[in-house]
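Case study B.
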Amino acid sequence: MVAVTFIIAALLLLNFLEPSLRDYFFGVTDTKMKQTAANSFDQVVKLSRVLLMMILVIVIVRALMNAVFAPLFRASTGYEASSIIRNAFSIVLYVIFFVFIFKNQFPDVDLGAVFTTSAIFGVIIGLALQDTLGNLFAGISLQADKPFQVGDVVNIPSKGTGIVESVTWRGVKIRTFTNRILLISNTSLGKEAIEVAPKNNLNARIVFFNTLYTDSPAKTLHIVREAVREADNVSQKIAPIVRVRDLAASGIDWEVKYWLVDYSKYNDTDALIRQRIWYAFKRAGITFAFPTQTLHIAPRTKIETHQDDTTLIERLSNVEIFAPLNEDEVSRLASTSELRVFAPGEAVIKAGDQGSSMFVINRGRVRVQISDNGKPRTVATLNEGDFFGEMALFTGEPRSANVVAAEETEVLEIGHQAMKQLFDTNPDLVEALSNEVAERRAGLKKEESKETVEDESEGLFKTVKRFFGLH
Ligand code: CMP
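Model:
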């Protein structure tokens, strides 16, 4: 404001003083010499006017750039206008105003001719400024391409990583994560492969970790996803993805991929996530395998069973169809059955397969599914204490449906031989199971009358007895 007032005052003073000065020095232009001097005085005054007006234009254009152009540019693109754009825009305005002011003061001078005669100087200056001009044009092409903007995180392998602070005529200014300034000329930047994480983009990171083989993958996956999802600066738009990368020497290698709200803070967020995983593991009793190597001297190859036989006996004695069995029979059944663990979504039984065992759910949940026009349709969901797979076991027919683990599920597998021993001593069991199988078969069909279920149960009873060689 002060500058504008000062220049306007100078212009007014010049206009005011010009006639008096002219009169004083060249009042009477009687000689040719005086005439020439008077003309030169006029030219100097006009040039001074052009100069003052151009200074005024520069001050006003700069003020407009900051007050109008920059906010408009930010509002429409979401980015700060780089100095190349600001300068290019300002120069266009300066040239327009210069031509206008110059023509106003020197109507007779041909500006085109002035620029043509100065072309030779242009070549000389061009050669002298070869590097600077190279940077300038590289900068212009960078602006046209727009590979990155102010505020983006860029990684230039040979130089480093940081946040773009400005893009100028000469080069790019990057603030590294150690708060140093990296200045790279536009020409050398044009030759580099640059990795850009745009500011307004959902950029992802991957954090690695490791667990012991004894820890359940389904549980780890769930715990890590929840722990990461709740950390600061993790975007809520996409849920973190947790994956097993490798079954490595010292344990299971994992990765968690998450998306950041503000990518420039990825170092802090990675660190926070590692910390959250540590605490979540501590609460859940999961153990990191990294960086130690865990040596197991294992008596058995099975890793899934942590339970003693008493828990299994209790589980089996609570299964309705095994209610008629005495304690000895239940404990024999428990000792001859095998514990198996299935991942969420994994098939325990596939429709059409042959099968000679049935299962009791010890922990978890399964879905019984049949194919309905090529799509899986769930006919029943079975929970802890329920059994399945008895149809094929009792009749020798192929498996009637798919049975899929709905979550991490532990089942007790009971084989043909164990069942045969039970049938020999508990003839009632055959009838109870035949009824159950008939009911379930009815559930697989669309409509079934009560009579048909009873008939079927009767038929099944005979089939099972025959299949197991019972009298
Ligand atoms: P199986 O035929 O050996 O294999 C698929 C199993 O799904 C089947 O034994 C039953 O245990 C179970 N199944 C089939 N139909 C039903 C149903 N309607 N309700 C509950 N379980 C079922």
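The chain has four domains: 2-117, 145-197, 203-284, 309-468. The remaining cases will be described in the next quarterly update.
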